[in-house]
């Protein structure tokens, strides 16, 4: 006959694995977006920064739905201004709209979008006794990026970019001809240009986190990176980003995380069998008495 103490130990063995599930961390959902930003270092001396323009962000729990709009952007910066050389950077757009949204705690999700209309960005130089030169010209009628994340079936992140009317010109492209109509919905991390110290990425997507409890996605519709630009002259270093959106979920505890492992199920079944055997033994002893 199995004693009461043994049966009690068996019960403890069964219950302990179920109680060992760690307490859930606080779960948060967040998102943010902006239309334009530029962070450039000129000739390793001057620093020029624009934006982020039309920035918006939110964090849940406590659901949010935020929008930021800027009607006109007209940024013209003199990167170098000397009697011998002038270098100018321009960022212009007619409308920038950024959104950030989450329904959490009703639904564990977050999303963001950034839209830029009638964009023109340029980099020009003018040397003494020489005509003005276009080092880089970038234009588009509409640019939009989106980033979204949810926990409907585990953590899932999605990003996308739409670019209409894209055109690229300038000496910085090395005479390369680019048909912008081929990149209306570019694949993730499409490298459009990578030469002469200039790298242009369309639909740049950066995913971080372990994918189980934490996951985040950033989408940049267009990222122009300058490294020792132009032709090793170290004229320009830094980044121009158009259409940035980001979404993240942190501290998520999967529902399946509380399901015991197969070995634990086996232990539980064996324990219940021993308890049943002990109970029958006690009933038999009571009947004989």
Provide the descriptors you would attach to this structure in a database record.
single chain, 289 residues, mainly beta, seven-stranded antiparallel sheet, 2 helices, 15 strands, 15% helix, elongated
Overall description:
Helices cover 15% and strands 54% of the residues. The chain is mainly beta and 289 residues long. β1 and β2 form a beta hairpin. The longest helix is centred in the C-terminal third of the chain and has 27 residues. The two termini are 15 Å apart.
Fraction in helix: 10-25%
Q: Overall 3D geometry? A: elongated
Number of strands: 15
Q: In angstroms, what is the radius of gyration?
A: 30 Å
Instruction: Assign the structural class, choosing from mainly alpha, mainly beta, alpha/beta, alpha+beta, or little secondary structure.
Output: mainly beta
Tally of helical segments: 2
Mean pLDDT across the residues is 82
Largest sheet: 8 strands, antiparallel
Distance between the termini: 15 Å
Low-pLDDT parts are 6-12, 18-22
Strand content: over 45%
Oligomer kind:
single chain
User: How would you spell out the order of helices and strands?
Assistant: HEEEEEEEEEEEEEEEH
Structure at a glance:
The chain has 289 residues and is mainly β.
Write the layout of secondary structure elements.
Blueprint lengths: L3 H16 L8 E15 L3 E8 L2 E5 L3 E7 L2 E9 L3 E9 L1 E8 L6 E19 L5 E18 L5 E9 L2 E3 L20 E6 L2 E11 L6 E15 L6 E15 L11 H27 L1
Antiparallel strand pairs: 1-2, 1-3, 1-15, 4-7, 5-6, 6-8, 7-8, 8-9, 9-10, 9-11, 12-13, 13-14, 14-15
